[in-house]
Give the backbone structure.
Amino acid sequence: MNAIDKPSNLFVPGSMPVPLKVDEQVAKLKKTLLKDIQRSAYVYRVDCGGCNGCEIEIFAAITPIFDAERFGIKVVASPRHADILLFTGAVTRSMRIPALRAFNAAPDPKIVVSYGACGCSGGIFHDLYCVWGGTDKIVPVDVYIPGCPPTPAATIYGFAVALGLLDQKLKGTHHVEGEDERVAPIFPGIPLDVRVQIEREARRMAGYLHGRQIAEKYLALLDLKTPQELNARIQQYLAQESDPRLTEIFSRLHAISSAALG
Amino acid sequence: MLKLFKTIFKAGEATTKYPFAPFPVSPGFRGKPELDAERCIACAACMVACPANALSIKTDEAAGTRTWSLFLGRCIFCGRCEEVCPTHAIGLTPEFELAVGNKQDLYQEATFSLQNCAVCARPFAPTKEVNYAMALLVQAGTPEAEVEAQRSNFETCPECKRKKNVLSPVKLPLGQHMNKGMPK
């Protein structure tokens, strides 16, 4: 409770909260601990106003399928037992003080993990009037686990990164356009209006993401030369997938393309 | 006791080997969106579609560039960007190992150059988008030489095009009633 009583960390209306700072000595202690960690790491989950999707995935990560407990990662009921604090949710205004209390209750050195899209940045709630938008606005964060929600495998990977057992794979990238870069239209062999009709029909039938994927598959087959070969390929593909819904969509796409292309 | 061991043996092990072995994701898994920047025309359709505002585009008129940026910390992996992309430049990959220690590593960026207007010399659209629109016209059946001859028109900003149209009244389609009184 000490840190939140300090005037520097008091909430001033109309201003952003100042994130807590890590003590230099604590940081050193944490480094020494992580260099040669030979014990279990206990996790306390701090819900800062999330939708509970993240909680479901955290508990999926300790089920027998993923079994985080085989690495000694155990979810505990009190922050006083915790080594890792898992902050989920976009940090609503009313959950700021409880989150700080949980942070201060955990013994040093502690690892703070920001979990889920909301924890990392506020997620889809980032510009809401009642959220601070991310864990790092109130406490110093060691590891960010993005995802909405992160899958159990991503959760285990995040814990491994937090404990220094695995290296971070993702790197920030910045591509700069090269000289005279040009983009050729997709499926150049198919007339534009036919392609648009096929894509529209597939999306109407199968919804947004899968409609596009199905249309792409069909157009890739359509790029072939002779009609007999096209029919044979389509039959083979449909037999391989053996999905009546896909067969229906493909028959409609085929009707469109044969009406337009003859 | 023996029976118990037998049951355990029969049931096998349900626990996945991850992280010691790669984790096989299900088909249709929605992981990290990956941009193929060479296929991107910076049209900003993905930015408009993104429900979480993870995608943003900043236009720097002075430098004549447009920077596309994906903040993975905000992405909800819905695949809307993949759906709307006209050139299939962005797509979700099965990549899920996205945890980072440094927040800056969650940003994926790409910078594109802007086309300067042929008349007023101000940037108005990405160069690649203008070229792509011309390539689409060719694909739709317009002869390539004809499209290329119109290049200066394509490289003119909408405002200058409007002004040009006002100065040449023959081209101005005002609607059937207004056009009646126009000089032929």
The radius of gyration of chain A is 26 Å. The mean pLDDT of chain A is 87. The CA atoms of residues 1 and 224 of chain A lie 70 Å apart.
